[in-house]
Write a structure and sequence with these properties.
Distance between the termini: 104 Å
CATH superfamily of the domain at 55-176: Peptide methionine sulfoxide reductase
Number of strands: 9
Oligomer: single chain
CATH class of the domain at 55-176: Mainly Beta
Largest sheet: 6 strands, antiparallel
Strand order of the largest sheet: 3-4-8-7-6-5
Strand content: 15-25%
Structural class: alpha+beta
Radius of gyration: 27 Å
CATH topology of the domain at 55-176: Metal Binding Protein, Guanine Nucleotide Exchange Factor, Chain A
Mean pLDDT: 85
Shape: elongated
Order of helices and strands: HHHEEEEEEEEE
CATH architecture of the domain at 55-176: Beta Complex
């Protein structure tokens, strides 16, 4: 009878010991999986642009909000830009370097609170990936100066391109047709 209780106690101790090893193994696995490459900041090579300035030069030329959006990839508050409701004929240029980016004929009201276009002026807008929110989005920036403009989504007008270029109004300046 004593052997039975001794064996039961020994089995219980072995069970607890094995469970501790399994728990330790799971904890270590979880630790390393949370440190995957998706969580690491990308070390992107510095892209060269036709218009290139130092941060000090950009800060002198741009307003605080323009600098935040264009140079630090920030986002303005929705419905804060007067360009959201700009529907006159003309072209929307980069606020930093004056490159024409979007034509007014391609602008539409997406209801998002930011100026939206169904297409860019080809060659003047460049694209990249943005993972700042934990998922990947297609970022847009000026191909001439590298200024952050916004993002492009696949939920635009189906009767045209199906794209919605959601652009920060502060990154743009409107040039009307004379």
């Amino acid at each position: 009878m004593n052997n039975f209780f001794f064996r039961q106690k020994k089995d219980k101790i072995n069970y607890i010991y094995n469970m501790k090893k399994i728990l330790l193994l799971l904890t270590i696995t979880l630790f390393f999986s949370c440190n995957s490459s998706a969580q690491k900041k990308e070390t992107k090579e510095k892209e060269e642009f036709q218009v290139s300035k130092t941060d000090i030069e950009w800060k002198k030329e741009l307003t605080e909000q323009e600098y935040y959006v264009l140079r630090q990839a920030g986002t303005e508050r929705p419905f804060s830009s007067p360009l959201n409701k700009e529907y006159n004929e003309g072209t929307f240029h980069c606020a930093a370097c004056d490159t024409p980016l979007f034509k007014s004929e391609h602008k539409f009201d997406s209801g998002t609170g930011w100026p939206s276009f169904d297409r860019e002026i080809e060659g003047n807008v460049a694209f990249g990936s943005d993972n700042n929110l934990g998922y990947s989005r297609d970022e847009e920036h000026c191909a001439t100066c590298g200024g952050h403009l916004g993002h492009v989504f696949n939920d635009g007008p189906r009767n045209t391109t199906g794209k919605r270029h959601c652009i920060n109004g502060v990154a743009l300046k409107f040039v009307p047709i004379k």
